[in-house]
Every structure is written in C-alpha cells, then in structure tokens.
Write a structure and sequence with these properties.
The complex is a heterodimer of chains A (359) and B (123). Chain A is of the alpha+beta class and 359 residues long. Chain A contains 13 helices and 8 strands. Helix content of chain A is 48%, strand content 14%. Chain B is globular and about 40 Å long. Chain B has a 4-stranded mixed β-sheet with strand order 1-4-3-2. Chain B has a two-stranded parallel ribbon with strand order 5-6. Chain B has a single domain, classed as Beta Polymerase, domain 2 (2-Layer Sandwich), CATH 3.30.460. Classes of the chains: A alpha+beta (359), B alpha/beta (123).
C-alpha cells in the first residue's frame, strides 16, 4: 500500500502573486488530490454595498480587481441599469466594448508573461510585459488611469475617445499585431515551452462542463462558453466567434488566450469602424428597485453580478461570482495525477486572481 | 441585451430533485448565492445552458434550517456551499468536501450575518 505525503502549497509561494493554500496529497511525486483553502485576504466588499450610495459603488466595484477593473465596474453598472431600465447611449456601449477588449489584451499579456516566468523563460516574460506597457499607454491616454480606468458609470461612460484618437489606436494595434505574433509564436513553437505544456493538466470537455469551468479554461477544453455572446455593451453588433481549442491541456489554454489577443484587436477595429457620434451618458434619476443577474466576460471568464435593490439609495445585496472562483473546481481536477513540478504551471493556467475571488 | 432571467421558487424538499433535473438536461452550475432577508434568507442556484439562465430560489425563514447539499450532483457546489456556510452561517448537510467553517479565513465568523448561528466547533 502506498504511503501518501501531504505537501502544503501556499499561501505564500513564488508562483502565487496572491494567497491561496493547497494541501497536495502526493504519492511519490504524483499529485493524488489537492484540497484548497482561501479567505486569507477576504475584504468583504460585497457587504460595503449596504453603506455606499449605489451610484458611488462603481468605484468600489472597479477596485475588486486590479487587472479586470473596468469589466468589474461595467458589470456593476449593467446590473443597476437593467434594474432601473436605463438605456445607455450607443456610443457609450461601443466605448465600453473598446475598453473591455483593451483590458483583455493587457490581462492576457500579463498572464503570458507570468506563465513564461513560471516555466523559467525570463526573456519571454520581459518581452510580454514590454508589449503590455504599450496597451497600458493607450488605456492611460484614453481614460487617465492605467490600472483603475474610472471610466465606467451608471448610465454610460465618463470619458469619450475622439475619432482621431480612435484611428490612432487602430493604427497602433495593427502595428502591434506583428509584435504580438513574434512573441506568441515562441509560446506556440518553442520545443522547451511545448515540453512543459503539451499534454499537461488535461481537462476533458465533460469535466469542464460538469465542474462549471469558464473562460479560457472552458474554451481550452472545447466549450464555447463566452458571455460576450449575450450581446451586452456593443457585442451584439460585433462579428466574432468564441475562440475554442479542443485538447484541454495547458498548451490549449495558452493557445486560446493567444488567439484572443488577435480577436480583441479585431473587435476594437470593428468598434472603431461602427461607432457613431452621440452622447456618452444619460442622466440617472430615481432609485433602483428589483434584482438582476448580470453576466459578462472578463479575461478570465464569466463573472456574475447579482444586484438586489429595495428602492433606497443603498443596494440590499450585491454578490460577485468571479471566474477564478468558478475555475477552482476545474483546477483541482487538473491537478489530480500531475507531477509535483507541474503544479505551479497548472495553477497558472486558470489565470487565478485571488483578489477577485476574495472580493 | 439578451440576458433572460428565469426564477423558479422551490422548497428545500424539491431542491435535490430540481437540481438533478437540470443536471440531466446538461445545465451548467453557474453559481450559488445567499441573500439575507429581513426574516431569514434566500439561496439562488443559477444554471446555464446555451446562454439561458435558470435560477432556483429557496427561501428559508431562519438560519438553523438544514439545506441538502447538491455537491453530489454538481461537485463544484461544495465551494459555494462552504462559502455560504462560512459567510452567512447557513447549514448544509452532506457537502462532498465539508470544511466545517474553515474554508474562508475571516476575522469575524459569519461576517454577512453576525447575528446568525454560532460557528461550528472545530475538532
């Protein structure tokens, strides 16, 4: 009979930018089971909704995460707008889509860099982050912020992008496409990278579905789960298909994110071509009463904002189910049967964001 | 926007059966969420299939009520159930992986329901 060893992994570990703890049950070097524990940085931001004006809470929502901050703010705004039956102007919807896709590009590049770092490819890490800086520059030029955009608001957006600036962004992204290709080809072709990723941490399509996986984790296993298909913001007017890969391994999840970089550039180009002049916000009057489950697609996958209001200026309840939380069960499944040395890489393949999960 | 919201009110006795029905129809578990009401609380179990969102709503008058776990049907439910137990003090029976109040490491037990039931004893 085998004798198992339990190795504590985290909450502090070089590969983890944020704290999560796993008890890894090992049979020699092979992981038999992984048991998670979270809550080391739980902030109780959902509770704060009971004390913050519903219009001001968007600032808190944006601070739930430093990577997908804009989409957190956007999701909150959509939830409130749906409850209050607010029609957001079309121009604001396109601007929301553009900033959402810029968020996706910078998030995926950040992840590619961290991923390269996790398997010891330092120069690749630096080059990914160098490219990400250019996206952050565009975000800063259009919103004034690099991490917290501060541009989402209930009823529209706070800032506009001029036609000239949009043309400039599109031209930059076109040039940028070649640079992305140069970097991402290394992920896709380099023998040492493929050695660490191909066939590692396979999550079958059935398991991904049963375990409620979302985002690139689900799409890397052949599931076309993409909330942008719901048509929120301007996605209903944009021509795109979810990026899906079928192998279900770490390489597949990486490939989904790489293909999504190019897809995001295409979506921004479409937005720039379709956007029309007009107002960027409507005045919000009255108080919210009702409830709504809002689902949007963050870089890491589907996020759910449940808002419930009772006709006062404070919401009764706000619940945020983040993509990382949804992907935890899938991650535990991937870890079963893997080698101990692959654990850091596998954890990173779901692009974990614990600050989101701990909200 | 195409975000249809379907809410079905159910009783604790119907929960397992209804969840199994949705599982058989290949619905994906999206989330489980708890909301404190003036008297008691409600749980929303959300499921998705081809972008159709179905919510099963369970309303209970007090936090001492025992809720059957659905982690035997959707394993991922154990995360949501432990979270709800830790933050609200809701009591679930038969969670596949029961952390007994130790999933979230919060300073205050049941921070979303400080007047609720006492935290379970850790053995």
């Amino acid at each position: 009979m085998s004798e198992y060893t339990v190795v504590p992994f985290g909450p502090q570990h070089p590969v983890l930018p944020e704290p999560i703890h796993l008890d890894l049950v090992l049979d020699d070097e092979k992981v038999v089971e992984a048991i998670p524990r979270i809550g080391f940085v739980h902030r109780g931001l959902e509770k704060l909704v009971e004390k913050k004006d519903f219009l001001d809470f968007v600032y808190v929502a944006e601070r739930i995460c430093g990577i997908c901050s804009f989409i957190h703010g956007l999701s909150y705004c959509i939830a409130v707008e749906e409850i209050m039956k607010i029609d957001v102007p079309p121009r604001a919807q396109y601007l929301r889509t553009i900033w959402s896709e810029l968020s996706r590009i910078h998030s995926h590049l950040l992840w590619l860099g961290l991923f390269a770092d996790a398997f010891g490819f330092e120069s690749l890490f630096m080059n990914c982050w160098k490219l990400r800086e250019q996206i952050l520059d565009i975000i800063e030029e259009t919103t004034g912020g690099r991490v917290i955009f501060g541009s989402a608001k209930v009823g529209g957006v706070r800032k506009d992008i001029s036609r000239e600036k949009l043309s400039e962004i599109v031209a930059k992204l076109e040039a940028y496409r070649k640079e992305i290709k140069g970097i991402t080809d290394i992920f896709m072709r380099d023998a040492s990278v493929k050695h660490r990723l191909v066939g590692v941490g396979v999550l079958s399509k059935e398991d991904a579905y049963k375990l409620g996986a979302v985002g690139p984790t689900a799409r890397g296993s052949g599931l076309a789960v993409d909330m942008r298909r719901l048509g929120y913001a301007a996605y209903g007017k944009i021509n795109f298909q979810p990026v899906v890969e079928n192998a279900g391994d770490s390489y597949s999840r990486c490939k989904v994110r790489i293909r999504e970089l190019f897809q995001s550039v295409d979506i921004i180009k479409q937005c720039a071509a379709q956007i029309e002049e007009g107002p960027i916000e409507v005045k919000v009057t009255g108080l919210p009463q009702g409830e709504f489950f809002c689902r949007t697609e963050q870089p890491r996958g589907e996020v759910v904002y449940y808002a419930k209001a009772d006709g006062t200026k404070f919401l009764k309840r706000l619940r945020v189910r983040t993509p990382t939380f949804a992907n935890l069960a899938a991650m535990l499944k991937m870890l079963q049967g893997c080698q101990l040395a692959d654990v850091p890489v596998l954890i990173l393949t779901i692009d974990p964001c614990i600050s989101c999960s701990e909200r | 926007m195409n975000q249809e919201q379907k809410i079905i009110n159910i009783t604790p006795g119907q929960l397992t059966e209804k969840v199994r029905e949705l599982s058989d129809q290949q619905f994906r578990l999206v989330q489980i969420n708890c909301t404190k009401l003036d008297a008691g609380f409600e749980l929303n179990y959300s499921f998705d299939k081809e972008l159709e969102l179905v919510n099963l709503r369970l309303s209970l008058s007090d936090f001492d009520a025992v809720i059957p776990s659905v982690s035997g049907i959707y394993l991922a439910a154990f995360l949501y159930e432990n979270e709800t137990a830790d933050l609200f003090g809701a009591k679930f029976q038969g969670i596949a992986v029961d952390f007994k109040g130790n999933f979230y490491n919060t300073h205050i037990k049941h921070p979303f329901n400080p007047d609720g039931p006492a935290a379970p004893e850790v053995k």
